[in-house]
Design goal:
With 293 residues, this protein is of the alpha+beta class. The protein has a single domain, classed as Glutaredoxin (3-Layer(aba) Sandwich). The chain contains eight helices and five strands, in the order αββαβαααααββα. The protein has a five-stranded mixed beta sheet with strand order 1-3-2-4-5. Strand 2, helix 2 and strand 3 form a beta-alpha-beta unit.
Length: 293
């Protein structure tokens, strides 16, 4: 892409903020019609990062993954994300990914924690993933960093009736819950094959087929989860609450302050560089890892 034609970071944020506001209003109107308006909390104090490796809150395994879109994802953190370590494996109640060796010159006393907020139909999120996934994977494998992905969905309505943003996010949550070691790969595959913003996008069967292509386990469970949009209500509520209450490690007013996705943080510090500039992001991470930020 010609850099002279690419929207500025400020323009990207303004566009995403406008979309998020429109989607919040759309969701609220829809919920009022159904008589079950989601009431998000009106404020959230900024909290300190308690540790580099976050405590993972594990939900119980639901026996029925197609219960009227009301299920809660498994393996999520306290901040509704999914924490990934060495080899792209997820931290779960029974698994703590451990690097086989630590290599390179950028070795912090503790791993830095990268947090990303993403929407699977956000083109700028896809740009960040394309530019940075390989180097992030290297940091994970070397024990230099952990990565917490916090999926949102606020771009529905532009490809109605298929609503790709929420369907893709639900599919990612299905993989995170029932084949967690493949979530990192599936997250990347979704962005690599992202449909254009404003189009319907692949159907649910195609989303499941892509999950199979990255080697997920528990295929039958994931199939039912994807086809039934099992985490649909959880995703809507979490998105609305997140957009209203901000980023706990950074600011309670983050989204209201003209910011959008991808929103990327390293040890609670916001990356304001170009989303497709891998060198700038690497320098940002290196400075924080070395204690120079």
């Amino acid at each position: 892409m010609n850099s002279s034609n690419r929207p500025t970071r400020s323009e990207q944020r303004e566009e995403a903020r406008a979309k998020a506001k429109a989607m919040r209003e759309q969701h609220k109107k829809s919920e009022r019609r159904k008589g079950v308006l989601i009431k998000a909390s009106i404020g959230l104090a900024v909290v300190a990062v308690a540790a580099i490796i976050a405590s993972v809150v594990i939900g119980g395994l639901n026996g029925n993954v197609n219960s009227n879109q009301s299920d809660t994802p498994i393996n999520q953190t306290t901040n509704n994300g999914f924490l990934i370590g060495a080899n792209g494996a997820m931290f779960t109640a029974s698994s703590t990914p451990t690097p086989s060796s630590t290599v390179g010159t950028m070795i912090p006393a503790s791993p830095v924690k990268i947090v990303t907020y993403i929407d699977y139909q956000c083109p700028y999120c896809a740009m960040f993933e394309a530019a940075n996934t390989d180097q992030i994977k290297g940091w994970l494998d070397a024990g230099i960093a952990t990565l917490e992905i916090r999926p949102l969905s606020f771009l529905d309505g532009r490809g109605s009736p298929n609503e790709y943003s929420s369907r893709a996010a639900n599919a990612a949550l299905c993989v995170a819950s029932y084949s967690p070691d493949k979530f990192f790969d599936y997250n990347y595959a979704l962005f690599k094959n992202q449909p254009a913003e404003g189009v319907a996008g692949p159907d649910n069967q195609s989303l499941f087929d892509r999950a199979k292509s990255v080697g997920v386990k528990n295929e039958n469970t994931i199939h039912d989860c994807v086809m039934g949009k099992a985490f649909g209500k959880w995703l809507t509520k979490t998105t609305n609450t997140t957009l209203d209450t901000g980023v706990p490690e950074y600011s309670a007013t983050f989204w209201k302050d003209n910011h959008g996705t991808p929103a990327v943080f390293v040890n609670g510090k916001y990356f304001e560089g170009a989303v497709d500039n891998a060198a700038a992001f690497a320098q940002f991470v290196q400075q924080i890892a070395a204690g120079n930020w």
